[in-house]
Each structure stands twice: as structure tokens, then as C-alpha cells.
Amino acid sequence: MEIQTTYYHSPIGPLKISGTDDYITEIIFNDKTQRIESRKKNLSPMLIQCIEQLIQYFNGQRRKFDLPINQQGTSFQQEVWNELMAIPFARTISYIELARRTGDTKATRAVAAANGKNNVCIIVPCHRVIGANKELVGYSGGLWRKKWLLEHEMKVAYGVQTLF
Fold it and tell me: Of these residues, 43, 126, 129, 156, which one is catalytic?
């Protein structure tokens, strides 16, 4: 299957979105490209649906995504990513809690590394994992984006924007 790529200009920066007719393979922030052109012609229905759901998320109209994803990784990474998908909208957990959910509280660093390898941001909500001291730590899109995403979800869910 051919992987297509397009770009969506989100409220917090450009997102590179890749996928096939059947699933999404990547959603990452793309700050490195100076000029980004959105290809809208001949996009697969899956990419169109992904952009539509992201727009709904950013507009406060979507709390959960229902897109099939296919992200390559080890069995441990897959387990961590599955646990990330179980974190409810506008909720956070610590890396220690995420490690506990995978069955090994001593695997905090491994869990953090797997979290960092997530290439389907927002849909696989790695932004919902915070430090044990409730501080914002580690987000490949930048901590300011992590804060924005968490505050956005809090505002949509509870009408409260201040989290950190």
C-alpha cells in the first residue's frame, strides 16, 4: 500500500500526517520545513477523515479518535502505546503509573522512551503523561504544545483552562 503524506495547519503548528487508504501511520509536528504545502487533491479518504477529526478535536467537538492506526514498534512499545490510548480525555497519568499499567513499575525509563517514540501524536495521546511530581516533562513537540493540549482538553471537558 502506498503511503500518502499531507499537512494540516493546526492551532499549535503544522502537523505532518501520513497514511494509506486503510490506516494512519504518522502524525508529527513539523517545524523544520520552512514552506509547507497542503496537498488536498487526490488524498485518500483516510487522510481526509484524519484531518476532519483533528479539526473537530481542536474545535472542542471531539474527545476520542476512531481512526485505525498502524505504528511500527517493538511489542513493548505497542503495549505502551495501547495504554496511552486508554488514558481518558483531559486526564493525566505519571510515567510511573504508565509503567505500572504495563506490569513493571521499574520500567519507567523504558516507558518514557517508548512514549517518546510515538509517531502518532494527539491520537495516541502521549501528551497526557506527566512527571511524578505533576510537572510537564518530555514531549517531542515541545513542552509549550503539551501544556496547550492539556489545557485545551481541560477547557473542553471542565471549562477550566489552567492546569499548570
Answer: 126
